[in-house]
Input
Amino acid sequence: MSSGLPDPDASRAVLIGGASYRHLEQLPAVTANLRDLAETLCDATLWGLPERHCVQVSDPADAPSLIGPVRRAGDEATDTLLVYYAGHGLRDADSTDLYLALTGSEEYSGYTAVAYQHLRAVVRASRARRRIIILDCCFSGRAARILTMADGSLASEAAVDGAYVLTASPRDRAALAPEGETHTAFTGELLDVLRLGIPEGPELISLDALYRTLLDRLQAKNRPTPQRSQENDVGRLPLVRNRASANGAGPAGPVLDSDVKTAMVASGLRLARLLRASGRPGDALPILRLALRERGPRDRDGTFAVQLELSELLADSGQSREAIEVLEQAFHETHRTPGPEAVAVCRRLAELLQESGNHVQACEVLKHALDLVTTVSTRVEHGRQNRGSQNRGSQDRGSPGRGSQNQTPLR
Output
């Protein structure tokens, strides 16, 4: 991109968060972390990552739920892959390995969680030219005391070749999720820097600039300080526009008409959801309709979320026919834009059609949804096969084989 930012269309983000647990302390702030970080990354005035490229994984219950979305995003991304995890970080009783907690995880029982090395391996296998891992792990008791490596660096343990790893490295839960605050301590500061920018900073905020600012702010508040690890100077590359840049009142870099329209759609959706949550669905309806009218010509799949939200409001208010019409408009776009949002549109449309007695049409819509799932799976599999062929070709030309890679330390 001319602005130097990662290409949103060629980038992916996976935001993973564990807020609810059966055997560990609850972390309600993590829910806000995921929601607000997703909105920030998708803000067209900051980065503009399409909503379809930003996947949220809440309260994963098993390893496939946590690792699967990262693997799929890694297969699709060619520019930047960003993986964020917030939740409990655990240690096994008999090892020093780091584990990411699942809803049913138990302390000191690594077999009930997901080993970080598995996440690291999936991220390392991505073809993205830049890979970013952000770990906002909370720890308690003995787990906190034994977290630090011999060199005092969690980031060194989490390191991924050719990637940038940023860790919160908290000592205890109280420091990570202060009582009365919406977000965890680390992610709260992260969001402030991304949303408000760095005063007297450059037009674009790099990962290194982000880290230094977080370090200064968290130290000033006497809170656990972040750590970082990077390969190939990835930290010098920009991530978002700097809203506090002195080079003008507007956001740094070019803001196109399509960017403005995308921002209007995203803002309208957020406002409508807030109104709906506060018991004012009637006020949310005109905002969603306006957001649909203002969408850009290339924002077909980006407005699926708005159409789904609008259809739910209409159905809840007894306007089922109009709800079906809204989703039928979206359905016609799913042929050109397959993906998770397109499948969600099909499923919801089929439900409304079935409720209205149109069983045959509902079956046709579900059949199309199945075709969409097959199409996406085929693309992912082809990408994985192509990458495997490229890797074998590299080995034939003298690149290190699998055995030598396993012997290369990542820390």
